[in-house]
């Protein structure tokens, strides 16, 4: 009797382990087949969420432009200059000066990447985000005015903290007025693969003008530690200030393409360069 009881016990234990073993095998098989079946589609909730989000915002964008009478200001030929680079580089880090009717488009061109918009007008930030809450936009209070453009261009050479050889990080640069030192930390913490300068406004005397955006984009690009160049796009180069500042800080030698009122620069890093110059170009 006692032996029978022991045998039953052992048998019960054995069947318990067998049961667990078979369970583990089935679960493992299911896991692996799910993996193989979903090799092109994410199987984890978080990844699935990411994929769904990027597809869904692109669908939202198609719906938006298909039903909007307002189109972006840049022409198709101008847009193509950054579109082609984004096709090759996305997902990447894309910094855009200004929110506009083009914002949803820029965001959609960089699926899975980081597209961050910097905007001078807080009310306009609210308006744009109300319609497209998936955009990432930050308000920026500029410390320049367009009417100071000529004086800033003359005086920056005598301000040591504007000098590129000193390599002062933008965030800590209080003295050089062309340095954007008030941006959200994320801007300084990331390396931007593409920078689009189509803002702030620069068509009336009290507007911030694009002087600081151009200077700061040049500094960010020159200080890049990662591989490759930084692509910088500047719109409205038919205007004197944009043209003069581009030639001073982004440099003719880095100008790779132009279309309409848009210039495309490829700016190499100078981090490992042994040649030190007081000039940007
Ligand atoms: C110079 S515009 C460039 C617009 C952009 N390229 C586009 O296609 O819409 C950029 C700036 O103008 C201002 N802006 C543009 N559209 C606006 C609107 N509908 N209402 C108020 N401000 C606007 C914002 O301050 C923005 O940063």
TrEMBL record:
Q: What is its main location?
A: Golgi
Which keywords has UniProt assigned to this entry?
Membrane, Transmembrane, Transmembrane helix
The source organism is: Heracleum sosnowskyi
Q: Name one GO biological process term.
A: xylan biosynthetic process
Protein name as it appears in the record: Glucuronoxylan 4-O-methyltransferase 1
Q: Which domain of life is it from?
A: Eukaryota
PANTHER family named among the record's database cross-references: OS11G0490100 PROTEIN
What cellular-component terms does GO give this entry?
A: Golgi membrane
